[in-house]
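Running low. Any example?
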Amino acid sequence: MFDLSFINYNTNQIVNELKTKGYFVFEQALTTQHVEELLQEIDFNQILLNTNDVGVVTAQNIKFLTHCLAKSKKTYDIITSRKILDICREYFNDTYRITNHRVYQTSKSSHMPWHTDNNLQVGKQLVKKHNMPGLLFLFYLSDVSSNAFQYIKDSHTWSHKYNNEIYLSDSFIDANYSQDILTLPMPKGSLILCDIHGIHRAEPFEDKSYKRTTLLFQVDQIGSENLGHGEKNIVNTEYLDNLTPEVMDYLGFGFKRDYPAFPSTSGATMKPQDILKLQKQLFPQTLEALSKSLVKSVLPTELIINFKRILWNLKLNLQKKLTDSF
């Protein structure tokens, strides 16, 4: 999963860099094999539609797998790994929990505003900034040359001055902090770890042929006054091969969660070309639905049930003959 050099990198040194600089960067922390196997677990071309499962949704030029703890074992292994837990245990002074996570793919264009991630919500709405310690983990799952993560150096120490702002404008940052902008293009598997109070964004880009795929998750030290802080975690119990009291608390077992999953999506958040692609997928399904509806309206229910019974028995008899022939 992790490159040996990252596993052996001193955890105390990582935490020291976070507390002094506000960020820590490690190139190719994940092995290429683990990244490729993780991406095989996610189908970004299959968008959820009346599907009784968790999967990918889309919001304009970004596709999200929000509930990746229920869909991707490779993602679960990263998020609950011993190395990640050790970093959190060293960094935080009190109980810490994962508050959101997602794998997402950005394509064609993006212009993210400058912001911090120390947000408190009521429902979908941001109501204010909080002062709880927190860490943002970001792993590149593709080689990143454009749309790279950007961080303003030392901003974790003074961003509280702008807690009344949801975003900071490009013009304000360019005029006051352009010399402090750190831009981080790196190969797939690289890790960026930063204080959630630091001001950051993804560098704007426009390139119809480019895609950036990223795993992001946030861990906050949640005090008793902020119960309910965080998005709900849907976890596949099959993945819980490392379940301990520490992991249970970290994942928020029994902990109240008030925030809806991000992003909030519907047909209205899709781009027209994606809706057209979806219509092509829907056409054969529509024909199938109409034919089933016609059959059910013409034939008695009991006749349909008996027909299914006959087909089932024929199938069993055929399987038995094939087994006996061997």
